[in-house]
Amino acid sequence: MSWLEHHDRSWKLASDAEVMSRQNQLDSARELYMRAAKEEELAVNSLDLSKSRTLGISVVSAVSLWYKAARYKKAQQLAKTWLKYTALAAFAREELDELLQAIEQVIETDDEEPQEFGVSCIRATGCIKIPVADISSEMQKQSPILSYFQGDATGQNFHHRRHYRSADKKEHQQPDHKGAGAFKLSDNEYLHKKPSARSGVKNKRSPKTSSYFCFR
Fold first, then answer.
1. Is the overall model pTM greater than 0.70, yes or no?
2. Most buried one in 72, 129, 212, 214, CB count within 10 A?
3. pLDDT greater than 50 at residue 46
4. 100 phi and psi, to 5 degrees?
5. Parallel, antiparallel, or unpaired: how do β-strands 164-165 and 126-130 relate?
6. For the chain, what is the total number of helices (H) and then of strands (E)?
7. Which residues lie within the region annotated Disordered (predicted)?
């Protein structure tokens, strides 16, 4: 199977997991997040390493999904493995660094599999920065997950969203997708999102500044 096929499977599973978590079906949600993480890892493994932007997005997605599945040691291991890869895109390296800090903080205070879904995220403190990434591949633009990660989805979790631009550095405007693409945090996990410097601009375009998600 291709990167796109695995990637889209991951997106669908993560969407279903979000529905389950909102319905308080916590075991089912974690199982679906785990399956989504496995599909995203398969997507990474099927990818040409020369596609640095796509690779970076998939790697961060996989780590984020393992985190959401409460498989913290797995998320930690995967993040450390890819941080050793010297050709990893800078934006992905920055995100993995911050994800790893959050994951390791959770591991210090929680068991590998907490009894209550989201407990670890409550104990994790600090902000996670989501920097801008440039997306140029037509293959990437065909993927629903990358389309849905565009926009100002409030309270989105580590399964990262994107404010992205085209490769020629001109801002690439996309419609504001909501709903299935917004992988939101639970009420306990989410505290607030620090507004970007351009959030008040009337003509909303993809911001060049980073976004932050803060946790209790």
1. no
2. 72
3. yes
4. -60, -40
5. unpaired
6. 8, 5
7. 165-216
